[in-house]
Design brief:
The chain has 408 residues and is mostly helical. The chain has one domain. The chain has 17 helices and 2 strands. A two-stranded antiparallel ribbon has the order 1-2. The protein is globular, with a radius of gyration of 24 Å. The chain starts with a helix and ends with a strand.
């Protein structure tokens, strides 16, 4: 090929690339604009108090993980030893209650409107909300750390949502998402198996399931320790991760959704949600003071469920600021991404602390703020580029009617 033809071909290739790049930039910018519009304007169906609870949940988890990483590397301090910091894992239980409530609201609404539940529509709705970002994070971890992924058998348990039982996952925090996915599958099936009955009847059935979970947890603890009381770190791990011993919050959320969807006026304590919160808070305090590994999940489920019920019934104006809506919409991405940034941030905290003569407490608190902001920024990008397009696809697909599977 002559130099003239080579030059002509190179010019044509460059022209094609220049023509393609603007189209790509237009598409990316369009995705950003669409996603950012959704983040910028709160939806009409928003419940600000629930946004605030979800924001608190994700910040509790991020704070605990950052503090634990700092304590392991540089030693504990008052901030890392603070009760709310050490027990930030409770944020996961708050997530469970909120997930149970939101999913339950969809299920009760569909049961009321159609007399049945469309499993295909339900799984489509949940799948296009959870799976795109989850798979994106999985692929990013797999490609960036192939050796570590190989040591965990390439994270196969993440893909089949069994990491809460067999820990070969490579996505940090995936155990709780596996529990939620199992819940998404079992919840509609459980309601269908219970059969058509009154809303009150469903509540009694769910209360019975909560008692069953408590009993299973007690006997699991007994199998590991030989007794029913006390604390044991090894036994606690056997209770914390599996769905069948730690789904109290999800069931409690279903109960709250049932109450909120019922046509009957609440009576008794349900009609006085503020008093209910105080009673459940006192019960949780007693449970934590008892230093038992069996009871905390039930106590947390009841307390967080009472908070959600109070928020729905009281008309509180708490958490109406837009930042809580933003944190709520980004909480899923923040939960998935923050652990991949915390080591880098923590590794730079101590040198900066010594250089600036800053107390360890202040350095740890500053690290939490930095990690939360960084996580929020990354989550905003992935929301616009990954989550939002699939949410739009979900909206389009759900316009098609899918026949419900009835409870008869």
């Amino acid at each position: 090929m002559t130099p003239e033809l080579l030059a002509q071909e190179s010019a044509e290739e460059q022209a094609n690339r220049n023509a393609a790049n603007p189209r790509l930039l237009v598409r990316v910018s369009g995705l950003f604009r669409g996603g950012w519009r959704e983040l910028s304007v709160a939806t009409e169906r928003r419940v600000p108090f629930l946004d605030g609870l979800r924001a608190i949940a994700v910040l509790l988890v991020i704070n605990q993980h950052l503090a634990l990483k700092f304590a392991l590397r540089y030693g504990a301090n008052r901030y890392t030893s603070f009760g709310l910091t050490r027990n930030g894992w409770m944020g996961v239980d708050l997530f469970f209650v909120l997930s149970g409530f939101f999913i339950g609201s969809q299920l009760w609404r569909e049961l009321a409107n159609t007399g049945g539940i469309s499993l295909s529509k339900f799984m489509l709705r949940r799948g296009l909300r959870i799976w795109p970002l989850y798979v994106f994070i999985f692929a990013a971890v797999l490609l960036s750390s192939p050796a570590a992924a190989a040591a965990k058998q390439y994270g196969w348990t993440d893909l089949v949502f069994l990491t809460n039982y067999v820990n070969h996952g490579i996505v940090d925090g995936s155990w709780s998402l596996c529990s939620e996915e199992q819940f998404y599958l079992l919840a509609p099936l459980a309601l269908l198996l219970i059969g058509p009955r009154s809303m009150r009847g469903y509540r009694w059935g769910l209360a019975g399931l909560m008692l069953l979970v408590l009993a299973v947890r007690a006997f699991t603890f007994h199998a590991w320790t030989g007794h029913f009381l006390g604390k044991n770190p090894l036994a606690f791990a056997q209770l914390y991760y599996p769905f069948h011993t730690h789904c109290d919050g999800l069931l409690a959320g279903l109960v709250v959704a049932n109450l909120a969807s019922s046509q009957q006026r609440p009576s008794g304590l349900l009609a006085r949600p503020g008093l209910l919160v105080l009673i459940c808070g006192a019960l949780l305090g007693a449970v934590l003071a008892a230093r038992s590994d069996i009871l905390p999940f039930t106590g947390l489920a009841l307390f967080f469920a009472s908070l959600v019920w109070w928020g729905l019934r009281s008309g509180t104006r708490l958490f109406r600021q837009h930042i809580f809506y933003l944190l709520s919409r980004l909480s899923f991405g923040m939960y998935l991404n923050h652990e991949y940034m915390q080591s880098w941030i923590v590794s730079r905290l101590n040198p900066l602390r010594h250089a600036a003569h800053v107390p360890a407490v202040a350095a740890t608190a500053f690290g939490f703020v930095v990690l939360a902001c960084a996580s929020m920024g990354v989550a905003a990008v992935t929301f616009c580029l990954v989550e939002h397009p699939f949410l739009m696809l979900r909206t389009a697909l759900l316009r098609k009617t899918v026949p419900p599977l009835t409870a008869h």
